[in-house]
Specification:
Blueprint lengths: L75 E5 L6 E7 L4 E7 L12 E2 L16 H9 L4 E5 L5 E5 L12 E6 L3 E6 L50 E4 L9 E4 L9 E2 L3 H10 L2
Antiparallel strand pairs: 1-2, 2-3, 3-4, 5-6, 7-8, 9-10, 10-11
Length: 282
């Protein structure tokens, strides 16, 4: 026969000593096929254990880490008990601001995950641009799918390299290129340069230095031309050769060195002038 117990105020059932602090040793057991609570249920202990085989929740969202009041400082998630094996866990790593899936030696009583071995997750092939990509999808796109990469040269011309094509890094007349596995391209400048029309320095008023190796010499096989008249440079211990308006020497080719004639400018004498001077001086 059904019975109803009514009370006009709070109703408390006490079992054993220490019930106020949750440290009592006695148990209250509700022995029935179904226990129904029409109102809200609040459990204020430190642990809730469900021994049921099936848990059905009507709520659309399940909140964990409910009493967290500090932004971005506490890990939280779902742990999957694996018996004698390491537990599996899906959780939010607050320190890294990211979700992590993997195995851990922790159990559900920890407040922070300090060891994790990332695990694998199996997903379907992506159907749209904001879906996660499977390895198969990425491999397919790289090996035979549709993609393109643009390369732009110094002349601002862009060449599209589509899937299945090969990028050819051409060296040109003075540059050699070589490729080696796994993914190295080496670019070398030839020792013997040809088809070079001009060489200039990269900095304002910078020197252009041509230097032979060891005891070798800098050799000019053809005509050496001075395109414009130069101003007289400052004398130093190095001989400087330059072009100016021809004077008494009849060549217009001058030199200056601080160790010669106290650094005074001198002009190289032409054969004609030298012959005339020799005749004049007897």
């Amino acid at each position: 026969m059904a019975k109803t117990l009514r009370t006009s105020g709070d109703y408390t059932v006490k079992a054993g000593a220490g019930y106020d602090s949750g440290s009592g040793t006695n148990t209250i057991r509700l022995d029935a096929k179904t226990v129904r609570i029409p109102g809200d249920l609040t459990v204020e202990g430190t642990q809730t254990t469900l021994n049921s085989q099936t848990l059905t929740v009507e709520d659309q969202f399940i909140e964990v880490n409910r009493n967290n009041s500090t932004a971005g400082t506490e890990d939280s998630g779902i742990l999957f008990n694996q018996g004698s094996s390491n537990n599996q866990i899906l959780y939010y790593d607050a320190d890294q601001s990211e979700f992590v899936l993997g195995s851990t030696t922790h159990n559900a009583t920890v407040s922070s995950i300090t060891n994790i071995t990332p695990g694998n997750i199996r997903i379907a092939e992506p159907g749209q641009s904001d879906h996660a990509a499977t390895k198969n999808y990425v491999d397919t796109q790289l090996s035979g799918g549709s993609f393109s990469i643009g390369f732009t040269g110094d002349d601002s011309t862009t060449v599209a390299v589509t899937s299945g094509n090969t990028v050819d890094i051409a060296g040109g007349s003075n540059i050699n290129t070589s490729a080696a596995e796994p993914d190295t391209v080496t670019i070398n400048l030839d020792q013997n340069l040809t088809d070079i029309n001009s060489v200039s320095t990269g900095s304002s008023n910078g020197d252009l230095i041509i230097q032979a190796n060891g005891t070798g010499s800098v050799v000019v096989d053809n005509i050496l031309t001075f395109n414009s008249a130069a101003s007289t440079p400052t004398a130093s211990t190095i001989t400087k050769l330059y072009n100016k308006t021809a004077a008494g020497g009849g060549t217009g080719l001058y030199f200056i060195n601080s160790n010669i004639s106290s650094g005074a400018e001198g002009e190289l004498i032409s054969k004609k002038k030298a012959t005339a001077l020799a005749i004049a001086l007897g």
